[in-house]
Here is the input.
Amino acid sequence: MPEKIPSLTGRVIFQYFYDVGGDVELGRIPRENLNIIERRRARGARILAPKYEEVGLRPLDVDLGAQKIDGHKVTLEGHVFPIGVIGIYANVEFRDASLDSVIKLVGLNERKVKVAGKELDFDEIPRSLFEDLRRKIEPAIVYPYPPFERPEVYTLILIAESDPPLGAQDFLTKFPKQTAGLLRGEREWASLSDKETEDALKCYLTYSDDDIMFIDWYATLISGAVDYLDEFVHMIELAKIQLLELKTYDRLLDQRLERAYGSLRGVFRGPKMGISWGSRHYRELSKAASDLAELRVEILDLVEDMRNITKFTGEWYLGKLYRLASERFRIADWLALVDKKLDRLQELYAMAMERIDVHRATTMEFLMMILIAAIVALEVLMVLG
Here is the structure.
């Protein structure tokens, strides 16, 4: 007897994370022009409910209204994180939908859509909302730096109900290719190879027989655990924010390193520095060394904030989810890349300081020779006199 295809009820959230180019002091945000969403964190009823402590990264939530996009009612929210990130979320609900229709819905943000009689790329909608929200919170942006222009885009598929009910193992054994199609937004899911299906489903967590979470590089699928969806979603948020900030720092380091190479190359290839501390090349070298030291402190401070993006106390399950998401998003690789560039920055600073020390030593030796010569000349004049 063929397996009955379930109908699903839930929502799809298209997430767009943008770097704003500085930290955000939430207390300084002008709120008179913002429709703030006040949320109370619900307390779980069951004994084994997730509990964790997360410091300093609860966002300010802003209602951005609703739009009709390709016939779907899409509710829009802005989430302003103090670390310097704005998330724009587009929520689309589905009810009693087939797997194929949900898979089609997951790919909504990959094509042109109709909004108010106009056809445009889906990505233009969150970009416009982000720019407007950033202008409104600009007085609260501190410690500015050049922002990373490209957003981190991610999709959440949250299944609240299914008919017939789906258990955790059903996604793995009865509908593996359809599940992989959801995670990859692949409408032709039947053509997925076994290897690709296995790769899409390999990162998952299940707490009970009734709930399961798949974390993939394109999307996360969460079925069940309705009372704790907000906590699970927040863990995914933090991992994505970490990835965005690492990419921002990586690009910032590339720009500053290139500038530092240019400054040092110009000094090293120029004529030899004179003996005066006031010489042009000495001033240029000193400025380059000072800029390098300042940049390294600045980046180290930013990266340290990013490393401490979460602090867990006693909640192993959410910690497992965060580590699994970090592994899937290759956060450790990005951290290693940033650390490597920071080491290179330190090497450049050491080269500049070594050149400065040589120049100082040479200048001191020359001055000592002048002093000795002056003393000898005075003694000769005294003898002749």
Q: What stands out?
A: Confidence is low (pLDDT under 50) at residues 44-53, 273-277.
